[in-house]
Design a protein that fits this description.
- α7 (170-180) packs across α8 and α7 (170-180) packs across α9.
- The chain is elongated, with a radius of gyration of 19 Å.
- The chain has helices spanning 7-12, 23-35, 46-56, 72-82, 96-104, 117-140, 170-180, 189-197, 206-219, and strands at residues 15-19, 39-43, 60-64, 87-91, 109-112, 144-147, 150-153, 158-161, 164-166, 186-188, 229-232, 236-239.
- The protein is α/β, with parallel strands linked by helices.
- The strands form three sheets. It has a five-stranded parallel sheet with strand order 2-1-3-4-5, with helices on both faces.
- It has two domains: 7-138, Rossmann fold (3-Layer(aba) Sandwich), CATH 3.40.50; 141-239, Winged helix-like DNA-binding domain superfamily/Winged helix DNA-binding domain (Arc Repressor Mutant, subunit A, Orthogonal Bundle).
- It is 44% helix and 20% strand.
Length: 248
């Protein structure tokens, strides 16, 4: 049985860009999108895929890595330069380094060919739900979060430390978001995988550790401020604000 999106979800998430050079796979993805009351647009190469992306602004991108000319890695990089739209990558190789490279590069999920139609549909639907939830949360949250020397402008997705702008990747920003929204709470590695990566089983816990290390370094949360983000051995992390909070 195919589960369809609610009318509210359909109204907000109807356009899916499918960048895939294999006609049979592209058609299969398009049919899954149609079954979920969405519209799938198929483009067979990376350059035209990017052109369509910037012209049409889809709600989700299904991206094949093995594209002719400009490959999927470069397409993903270009998309992430300017947009946070969910990206599901398709790869013909069940190699861990490909999965890690895709997720590190900003992809939200991945599927290895050949894949099942039901799994594809479930992953597409999960990404669309997550995107809608993020948009709703963003609309409801206060504009600016301040805590000691840290300032986060949510609408602008801008982070400042001691007044200086700090560049964070999408994952680093989402990880920071998870911490500041749960001050004083011990967050398990599993919880962070669910909240930030949306895949508690496909990624190893070391991924969280490495991203935390990068976030600490960029925000100055190192030895002299180690109580700000405490590592809980064998469990996860706890964020303890150093100043008064003016946001949730």
């Amino acid at each position: 049985m195919t589960t369809t999106l609610s009318p509210e979800q359909v109204a907000r998430t109807t356009r899916v860009l499918i960048i895939e050079d294999d006609p049979s796979i592209a058609e299969a993805v398009r049919r899954v999108v149609a079954q979920q009351n969405g519209t799938g647009v198929v483009v067979a190469d990376g350059r035209n895929g990017l052109r369509n992306f910037f012209e049409e602004r889809p709600d989700l991108v299904v991206l094949d890595i093995g594209l002719p000319g400009m490959d999927g890695w470069e397409v993903l990089e270009r998309i992430r330069d300017l947009s946070e739209v969910p990206v599901l990558i398709l790869t013909a190789h069940d190699l861990e380094q490909d999965k890690v490279r895709g997720l590190t590069g900003g992809a939200d999920d991945y599927l290895t060919k050949p894949f099942g139609i039901q799994e594809l549909g479930a992953r597409i639907q999960a990404l669309l739900r997550r995107s809608q939830a993020a948009a709703t949360a963003s609309a409801e949250e206060p504009t600016v979060y301040r805590d000691g020397n840290l300032e986060v402008d949510w609408p602008a997705r801008e982070v400042r430390v001691d007044g200086e702008v700090v560049g964070l990747t999408k994952l680093e920003f989402q990880l920071l978001q998870a911490f500041v929204r749960h001050p004083g709470q011990a967050l398990a590695t599993q919880q962070l995988l669910e909240q930030v990566w949306n895949d508690p089983f496909g990624i190893g816990p070391e991924r969280v550790k490495f991203t935390v290390l990068r976030l600490r370094r960029k925000l100055g949360w190192q030895d002299d401020q180690k109580d700000v983000l405490e590592a809980i051995r064998g469990y996860g992390y706890r964020y303890t604000p150093v100043g008064s909070r003016t946001a949730p």
